[in-house]
Design goal:
Two copies of one chain form a homodimer. Chain A is α+β, with helices and mostly antiparallel strands and about 270 residues long. Chain A has two domains: about 1-70, Multidrug-efflux Transporter Regulator, Chain: A, Domain 2; about 120-270, Regulatory factor, effector binding domain (Multidrug-efflux Transporter 1 Regulator Bmrr, Chain A). In chain A, about 40% of the residues lie in helices and about 30% in strands. Chain A contains seven helices and 13 strands. Chain A has helices at about 5-10, 15-25, 45-55, 60-70, 75-115, 145-160, 225-235; strands spanning about 1-5, 30, 40, 120-125, 130-140, 165, 170-175, 180-195, 205, 210-220, 240, 245-250, 265-270. In chain A, a hairpin with a 7-residue loop joins strand 7 and strand 8. In chain A, helix 3 packs across helix 4 (about 60-70). The first copy, chain A, is elongated, with a radius of gyration of 30 Å. Chains A and B meet through helix 3, helix 5, strand 4 and strand 10 of A and helix 3, helix 5, strand 4 and strand 10 of B. The structure holds a DNA duplex (30 and 30 nucleotides).
Chain lengths: ~270, ~270
DNA sequence: GGTACACCTTCCTGTTACAGGAAAGTCAAG
DNA sequence: CTTGACTTTCCTGTAACAGGAAGGTGTACC
């Protein structure tokens, strides 16, 4: 018969933990003095405690351990729990690996620039988006904004004509990889709710679901470049690659207002590996 | 001005989380209607939220993020936090790797044997232990127990003669690697408290601190073999290796009692890699 | 026999980053 | 005016304990 502190010294398990295991019924003392309430353990309880510690080292929860020890599960059930745990561990492993490369990238960046970056890139999964839109070529970089305006006007006219309800800020897509000088393949869309019929060159369709690497840019479009750079760096340092056209979401855009009030989100569909 | 659910849809962050961030002062709404209490956000707050999410993705706590954003730390402090996080992540990564190999080993074992094993092996770190002991050779396997008895008698006699206080169950050490047939290098020790002077062939010294792979065996010493096997398998599957003599701790041993009551812990000092 | 000190008990709080849900007030559409 | 979608605050629960308070116990020592 060992007092709790003796058992604790023997097993390296703190008394707090032993009392907790008693409380949740995972490891009851061999005897409890009914008068003083003192807990007494025996060396015969060591194998059980060892089993508990071993299963805990595998990452199982105390609830699971209790089930494994007390409700003598079938081998199949135990296999199931272990397979699940294996999958979880594997996933956490991969997450931690990307986390590690991001931390290291951020460290390098701070070493270089001496400060936190202006743009923070995050990954988000978006659902498919129903839109009305047009896709066309801008003749060259100098006429992008003009072409855009024309395309956007077409979309707006048709959306209002069909009384379609807006379902969020408008989104532009850039289908080229890189930044070609001429024949720039761009697309202007407006998310809508409800049905939409193709008319006057404006089509109704759905932007696919995607995992997007995103960042937010504030101010005029002239300085979008560094936002794009930040995303590129992020994609590279996380081991991702681009799997579709980039998007620009015009969260706040009024051509008549001060460009400093404009807010744009830049998004690149990416995949791991 | 966006209501909380609109901001939530825009950012993919649940309203619960936004309210929580408000509560802890991490992201206050741009305006709170003083009459209704409704929270209102603006797109200008997106960059801050993005920064929060990006830092969270690096594994930083909300407290740390708050400090980074609000108490504009020096670049040096930020570097420190990131370096710490890098170290933590790296460690978790390694832990998860060994955890994964253990889970896989256990899975294989269950596939083979169809049940949980009798012996569970755990790793524990032990402090140095002051002992009185003798080391000698047993002529062959058949005379181990006899030699042991003689050595143990010597130790006990000298410990009681010097009035040294016992400090735990006695420990045997096996210095050979493998199991030689003759000239077996064994050591018998008794942990004690206080000073001890070498006399009659019994020395006082200290067993070194170590990381030990341990398991508990119940019953007579004849069946110790499978306990040793279990530890060996564990050591191999975890990528450890043996770095010193194995120990047997006689937690409960009375030669006159039923051997089924005996409890022995087997320990191998190990290191990673 | 008293006392100091180590040890034991129960009970309460705090940890992290929210999730679930109840009760009650608010807003816009039909 | 009603309905339904939203909003608020507040309470509880999560996992596995750690820290500490208040009060009872055991024993060694003077």
């Amino acid at each position: 018969m060992l007092k709790i502190s003796e058992f604790s010294k023997l097993t390296q398990v703190p008394t707090k933990t032993l009392r907790y295991y008693d409380e949740i019924g995972l490891l009851k003392p061999a005897r409890i003095d009914p008068w003083t309430g003192y807990r007494f353990y025996t060396v015969e309880q060591l194998p059980r405690l060892n089993r508990i510690l071993a299963l805990k080292a595998l990452g199982l929860s105390l609830d699971q351990i209790k089930a494994m020890l007390d409700e003598h599960l079938t081998a199949e059930q135990i296999r199931g729990m272990l397979r699940l745990k294996r999958a979880e561990t594997l996933q956490r492993l991969e997450e931690d690996q990307t986390r590690l490369s991001f931390v290291e990238a951020k460290l390098r960046q701070i070493e270089m620039e001496g400060t936190m970056s202006e743009y923070e890139v995050i990954l988000k999964a978006v659902e498919p988006i129903e839109v009305a839109g047009v896709r066309d070529f801008a003749p060259d970089q100098a006429h992008i904004s003009e072409t855009f305006g024309r395309m956007y006007g077409m979309v707006m006219a048709e959306v209002t004509r069909q009384h379609a309800a807006f379902a969020g800020p408008s989104i532009a897509l850039y289908h080229d990889e890189g930044f070609p000088e001429t024949h720039i393949d761009i697309e202007t869309t407006q998310p809508i709710r409800g049905t939409f019929h193709e008319a006057n060159g404006v089509k109704g369709y759905t932007l696919p679901a995607a995992n997007l690497a995103c960042t937010i840019h504030r101010g005029s479009f002239q300085n979008l470049g560094s936002a794009y750079e930040a995303i590129m760096k992020w994609i590279e340092s996380g081991g991702y690659h681009i799997v579709g056209p980039s998007r620009e979401v015009y969260l706040q855009f009024d051509p008549n207002a001060d460009p400093n009030t404009w807010v744009t989100e830049i998004q690149f569909p990416v995949e791991k590996g």
